[in-house]
Backbone:
């Protein structure tokens, strides 16, 4: 069928035509926005799960909802080459410049001035003015260089500004497992301060399955955060992810074709989108048939092998790839570190650095002590497919 109208969208962070199966998180978020506006700020949201389950698009949806309610919202993706301070500062520029206009109240001017000083804390060259004369305003001082102190001032003054119009401030951080421990700890401290002082502030973090442990290690009160494990979709949501975008375009799926995609995808959103996209291309008429689905899965798997899986595989060094290969014998459910070591004829200690690097690269995680598992669903089958064709390595 016409590739131009193809409604499926495989790709990191790409908004699906139908975002399905995440109603409980979205409902909880809407409730938290309302509670927070009424002076009862809720605990931070933590969305964690494997690669490709839809954490980023869900986080972006939380952002969209908060922006629709006229909150001040900044969304960033943690990045080891830039600190949290700079990422947050830059992400705040746009929402704050949208606020700036002549004749603003004192609390909004104070928030803007404090944000300008926060910018000065990482960038000596240029301070923000937002086109306003902020010299007479109170505020500023978020430039001591101590992240806890500066972030606290920033959030406090922005919350006061947002409260002037009965709204709040939301910070959304993706790939949060890549933040420094000090950055995670600072965020926990700010969330705690917000709850104690009833600032209208909400924090949402998204990341890999090791994020909850990283938070617990950063600050003990992270135990009280709202943890949402984002998983593969349930059967009816998986079907809806395929059917709803097609129905909009007056295209139907036969039940058989649908079952093939739902089954082959393991109900993982990324795989549904990829197989959906290829099946659409394969289909000839306005009804998607079983053989279109079979072809779509085959072509989609080839796409995943050269894209989704391959880019992750290529991130590992030779010795790390050996480690991944040894893990693949156990499928996707995780391996005992001792078994992996035995297969490679090494000790667990000798393999410690490879294991640690693979965790830092976000390719594996430790679901429990002594166990290691892929963060990428389907990685073990990918390794098997490639090994049998002996074209990886
Ligand atoms: N609820 C959903 N319904 C339908 N499709 C979805 C849903 N969530 C995500 N997708 C699709 O799945 C793919 C992966 O989504 P996303 O990038 O948000 O995953 P992720 O969990 O952030 O992955 P990673 O850990 O690699 O960053 C995208 O193509 C997106 O369109
Ligand atoms: Mg993501």
Residues:
């Amino acid at each position: 069928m016409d590739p131009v109208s193809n409604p499926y969208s495989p790709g990191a962070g790409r908004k699906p035509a139908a975002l399905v199966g995440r109603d409980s998180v979205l409902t909880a978020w809407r409730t938290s926005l309302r509670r927070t506006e009424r002076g009862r700020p809720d605990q931070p949201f933590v969305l964690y799960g494997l690669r490709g389950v839809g954490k980023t698009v869900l986080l972006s949806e939380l952002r969209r909802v908060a922006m629709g309610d006229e909150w001040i919202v900044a969304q960033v993706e943690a990045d080891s080459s830039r600190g949290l301070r700079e990422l947050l500062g830059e992400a705040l520029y746009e929402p704050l410049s949208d606020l700036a206009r002549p004749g603003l109240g004192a609390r909004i001017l104070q928030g803007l001035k404090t944000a300008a000083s926060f910018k000065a804390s990482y960038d000596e060259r240029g301070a923000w003015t937002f086109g306003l004369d902020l010299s007479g305003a109170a505020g500023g001082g978020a430039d001591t260089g101590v992240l806890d102190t500066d972030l606290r001032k920033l959030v406090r003054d922005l919350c006061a500004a947002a409260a002037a119009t009965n709204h709040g401030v939301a910070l959304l951080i993706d790939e949060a497992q890549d933040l420094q421990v000090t950055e995670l700890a600072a965020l926990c401290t700010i969330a705690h301060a917000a709850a104690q002082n009833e600032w209208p502030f909400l924090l949402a973090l998204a990341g890999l399955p090791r994020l909850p442990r990283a938070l617990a290690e950063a600050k003990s009160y992270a135990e009280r955060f709202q943890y949402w494990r984002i998983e593969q979709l349930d059967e009816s949501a998986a079907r809806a992810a395929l059917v709803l975008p097609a129905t909009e375009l007056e295209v139907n799926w036969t039940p058989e074709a649908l079952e093939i995609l739902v089954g082959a995808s393991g109900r993982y959103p990324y795989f549904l989108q990829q197989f959906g996209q290829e099946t659409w291309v394969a289909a000839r008429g306005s009804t998607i048939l079983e053989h279109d689905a079979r072809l779509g899965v085959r072509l989609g798997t080839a796409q995943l092998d050269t894209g989704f899986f391959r880019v992750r595989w290529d991130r590992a060094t030779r010795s790390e790839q050996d480690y991944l290969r040894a893990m693949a014998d156990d499928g996707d459910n995780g391996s005992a570190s001792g078994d992996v070591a035995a297969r490679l004829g090494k000790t667990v200690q000798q393999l410690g650095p490879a294991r640690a690097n693979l965790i830092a690269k976000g390719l594996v995680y430790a679901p429990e002590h002594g166990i290691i598992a892929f963060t990428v669903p389907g990685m073990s089958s990918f390794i098997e497919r490639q090994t049998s064709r002996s074209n990886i390595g």
Observations:
- The pocket of adenosine-5'-triphosphate (ligand 1) is lined by residues 9-14, 16, 19-22, 51-57, 241, 269-270, 273 (CB under 6 Å).
- The mean pLDDT is 95.
- The radius of gyration is 24 Å.
